[in-house]
Amino acid sequence: IKNFLISFQKNINTQELFHTQKCYEQGFTKLTDRFFKNTPWPEADVIAAIVGNDGIFLILYKELYFRHIYARVPAGPTLEQRFESYYNYCNLFNYILNADGPVPLELPNQWLWDIIDEFIYQFQSFSQYRSKINKKSDDEIEVLRTNP
Known about the structure:
It is a single chain. The protein is an all-alpha fold. It is 70% helix and 0% strand. It contains 7 helices and no strands. It starts with a helix and ends with a helix. The model has no long low-confidence stretch (mean pLDDT 93).
């Protein structure tokens, strides 16, 4: 896993689009099936030191991390993970949209599509989650009330 993360980060930072795509479409999937089929990947703060606390890579890693939780972890995301995932998308979009010029980030078209698609899916999922109040604890309801 460590070697994969280092290679993935290097390919993203050097804008090696072919190799980034291979890591995204094949490497991540193979490692997921082998080691994290129904469990989360390590949290970003666990792998941060391995990738030198590279902020942009950690945002991209968290995008994959949370998407994996939504798709493969049987219990699904916790309320906190739902919020963290949303804020991570905000960080990614702000990085791209608030820059003075083009950002030094080149991602495969499929990943770009998947980012937008997953953002919309998670928004819809959160809306449905939020509306099912009868299955929530008082604490969860209070958190949802104070965070519209």
